[in-house]
Fold:
Amino acid sequence: MQCFRLSKAALNQMIVGAKVLEADSFGAKVYMLQDGKILKLFRRKRWFSSALLRPYSRRFIDNAVKLEKLGVPTLKVTHFYTLDQPGMTAVLYRPLPGETLRQITRHEGFSWQQSMPALIELIRSLHQSGIYFRSLHLGNIVVTPENTLGLIDVADMRFFRGPLSSSLKKRNLQHFARYIARENLTEAFPLQTLEQGVLN
Structure:
């Protein structure tokens, strides 16, 4: 994908009326624009890092393309930018329609008994396809209007030629378990059922 220069003035114009979806100590980093597209900013945190050669924004784009080729529903990147500030890049994309599993768990009448089989099937499919998604959690899994599961926020991902090893599968679930604990969902989420379904 071709990379375009996005000046400070053009950036400010783009985010007029936008909603900030995510921010950190440096400021806003994910915007929902008025037309419904998402602008995600990437900052290189260290001067010398692997991101110097392959920015996380480029990984984000490449991973989205790979997921699409493998038939996994995901977002669609439309533009790639470098910004005036050194080490900063950005991507503009169309979000994956639907709601995250985290949002859906807040719906009245939600039941993990009904939703768990699809989640297990998704993770098993990712592992079988050689996809190691370190940021796999309820906030990055979307239930689409077609009632299929897809992925967002896909920068932190690796693709292997064959299915994941048992150790990588377990490590992936450990990341998932840490998210469950961090979000105080330990009592509500049947983690043991997920682990048994994915690993057996």
